[in-house]
User: What shape does this take?
Amino acid sequence: GQQVMQIPQYQHVQEGEDFTTYCNSSTTLSNIQWYKQRPGGHPVFLIQLVKSGEVKKQKRLTFQFGEAKKNSSLHITATQTTDVGTYFCAGPQGGKLIFGQGTELSVKP
Amino acid sequence: DTAVSQTPKYLVTQMGNDKSIKCEQNLGHDTMYWYKQDSKKFLKIMFSYNNKELIINETVPNRFSPKSPDKAHLNLHINSLELGDSAVYFCASSQAASGRIYEQYFGPGTRLTVT
Assistant: This one.
């Protein structure tokens, strides 16, 4: 079955540094979604990418969908303590979302 | 107003007991889900209902029985609880899934601890 892999599993950064998490699928995806889960919270939808090579920005967050639609990345510029949490990518398969393992981001003030 | 709500938020129980978790959404969505998140934060779908009909049933032990009395509610009953059932259970909802997976809205989660 389809697998969605995310790296790194953990990332510790100093506030103000940049952060990137990468997502790779074993199969071509029709779209990819990104979610953020704060510590003790629940996953919250951030964005969906659909087109090959698509790039979308949300303030300091930049999301990319690969040309082959098998990989994606989330880049945060100048991290802040409010960025702390686990970031998940998720791809659809067979009517359900397959989530990556998540990247847990911690930010040292 | 809370979009997707779950009760209880915390559930501590002993092995062998039976327990239920309730979920309600007021978003008007047709599709609802149950996810299990283990201690390593891995999110795995358990069940999906579309307009009260079960459409996804992953390889979940039959001790887990979901029920959807109407499209705004999806409950999860667990029989004969085991230690390995300890996890956070999330309910989620989305627009109807007819070949497309829409963004999902998650409830606050129920942290189940089996002792």
